[in-house]
Amino acid sequence: MSDTLRRTRLDTAPKVERPRLYKVILVNDDYTPRQFVVTILKAEFRLSEDQAGRVMITAHQKGSCVVSVYPQDVAETKATRATEAGRAKGHPLTFTTEPEA
Ligand code: TYC
User: Fold this and answer.
1) Residue 8 domain-assigned?
2) With a 6 A CB cut-off, is 65 part of the ligand 1 pocket?
3) 92 close to ligand 1 (CB < 6 Angstrom)
4) Exposed, middle or buried by CB within 10 Å (0-12, 13-18, 19+), for 12?
């Protein structure tokens, strides 16, 4: 390798940016049973019973609640799977995603 190339590489600061994270958001509705929401939060997002209960009640009272943050593809896959699990049982339960700050 030429000196010119070597110097260029050493002078270049490594640009390793962390991928942007996406929030998965639980949206309240008037129909999905509370216990079903908790079950989905535990199964799809690996929340404990306590965490799932708190996230569910926050969404119920405030309209929505951040469940967790993940890289974009993971966030979208989990939101879709969790929403479809509700649809499969006839519930309007909805999870959305949005970029973190
Ligand atoms: N509001 C629902 C009820 O009273 C429970 C619920 C909570 C549904 C949170 C969705 O994201 C939700 N049965």
Assistant:
1) no
2) no
3) no
4) exposed
Q: Which atom of ligand 1 sits closest to the CA of residue 27?
A: 11
- pLDDT tens across 55-83, in order? 999 999 999 999 999 999 999 999 999 99
pTM for the full predicted model: 0.86
Rounded alpha-carbon distances, angstroms, from residue 59 to 1, 29, 56, 66, 93: 59, 9, 5, 8, 11
Q: Determine the atom of ligand 1 nearest the C-alpha atom of 64.
A: 11
Task: Report yes or no on 34 lying in a domain.
Answer: yes
CATH number at residue 86: 3.30.1390.10
- Quote the Cα angle for 27-25-67, to 5°: 115
Unique residue bearing structure tokens 């708190």:
54
**Atom 12 in ligand 1: residue holding the nearest Cα:** 28
